[in-house]
Amino acid sequence: MAQLVEFQNTSCYATSKDEANFIYKEIFEDGCYDVSNLPEAPFVIDAGANIGMFSLYMKHKFPRSKIIAFEPAPETYGLLRRNLELHNLADVEALPLGLASTASTEKLTYFPNLPGNSTLKPEEKQQLYEMAVERNGREAANKRFDGAQKLDVKLERLSNILNSHPSFTQIDFLKIDVEGAELEVLRGLDDSHWGLVRNIVLETWDASGVRDEIENLLRAKGFTIKCEEAGWAKGFYMISASRGI
Predict the structure, then answer these.
(1) Which branch of life, at top level (predicted)?
(2) Sheet of 173-176: strands edge to edge?
(3) What's the structural domain count of the chain?
(4) pLDDT for residue 230
(5) CB atoms closer than 10 angstroms to residue 125
(6) Under a CB-based contact definition with an 8 Å cutoff, are residues 238 and 32 in contact?
(7) Fewer beta carbons under 10 A from the terminal one: N or C of the chain?
(8) Phi, psi torsion values for 144, nearest 5 degrees
(9) What would you report as the CA-atom Rg of the chain, rounded to the nearest whole angstrom?
(10) pLDDT score for 128
(11) pLDDT of residue 244
């Protein structure tokens, strides 16, 4: 059941208060998605929008920003819409889609007690579950991961979406947090759009086995790369990619 969670700089509806607190700290306090070269009115893609915390943050920092936010899990998408309405945010388009290299319908493993970990790659979450057991005990891990559901969700190529939004001249910021499908999101960009992307920040886990491919792809597209291990768990990395404007 959704509850309103209050923070220092914002508030939002969430089904997991603990997860909302974690995401808030990551974005608002730790600044994991901060980049230095954004214009006053950036065009932003939020891939893996979850309940909308990143979009709220960007509108807080850049009130004139325009955002397209993608969230495929139906319940989470409902909370995303609810939070955007709560703050009366303009110029944020929320779409009930995931992003991939090919348009399709796939099975999403949805964790109702830990919705931010919902994934198209459930085999990776088994490893995360075992890590949670080792760290906090099986009872606590089961409380977080129990009740998983298989949901049909629609996936679309990012370039197909961008083709229906012809007014933008560049993609100032592409944020990706998609629980193992990061490379799929990037492969959904056509060459005609790659040249318009100025900044990318994404989270990836070494268990996904795609970090080297992601970094090689970004370098091949002309980006300067910075990769840092995240502080919350071993093996998670934040990759920042930018190019001069």
Answers:
(1) Eukaryota
(2) 92-95, 66-70, 43-47, 173-176, 199-205, 236-242, 224-229
(3) 1
(4) 84
(5) 21
(6) yes
(7) N
(8) -80, -40
(9) 17
(10) 83
(11) 64
Q: What is the pLDDT of residue 122?
A: 87
| Coil/strand/helix, residue 185 | helix
Tell me the three-class secondary structure of 33-61, residue by residue: CCCCCCCCCCEEEEECCCCCHHHHHHHHH
Strand bridging mode 236-242 / 199-205: antiparallel
H/E segment holding residue 163 = helix 158-163
d(CA 2, CA 75): 10
Q: Dihedral of CA 208/234/135/52: which sign? A: negative
* Long-range own/partner contacts, residues 233-237 (CB < 8 A, 24 or more apart): 233/131, 235/205, 235/206, 235/207, 236/203, 236/204, 236/205, 236/206, 237/203, 237/204, 237/205, 237/206, 237/211
Q: Are 199 and 241 in contact (CB under 8 A)?
A: yes
Dihedrals φ, ψ of 74, to 5°? -55, -45
- The pLDDT assigned to 131 comes to 83
Structure tokens at 168: 């933008």
User: Measured between alpha carbons, how far is residue 71 from residues 24, 225, 235 in Å?
Assistant: 18, 26, 25
Backbone angles phi, psi at 175, to 5 degrees: -100, 135
Domain housing 102: 3-242
pLDDT averages per 10-residue partition of the chain, 245 residues: 92 95 95 93 97 97 97 98 97 98 97 93 85 87 90 98 92 96 97 96 92 97 94 86 79
Q: Please give the full DSSP string across 51-113, using - where no structure is assigned.
A: TSHHHHHHHHH-TT-EEEEE--SHHHHHHHHHHHHHTT--SEEEES-EE-SS-EEEEEEE-TT
CA–CA dist 212, 237 (Å, integer) = 12
CB of 232 closer than 8 Å to CB of 226? no
Tokens representing 4 are: 């309103």
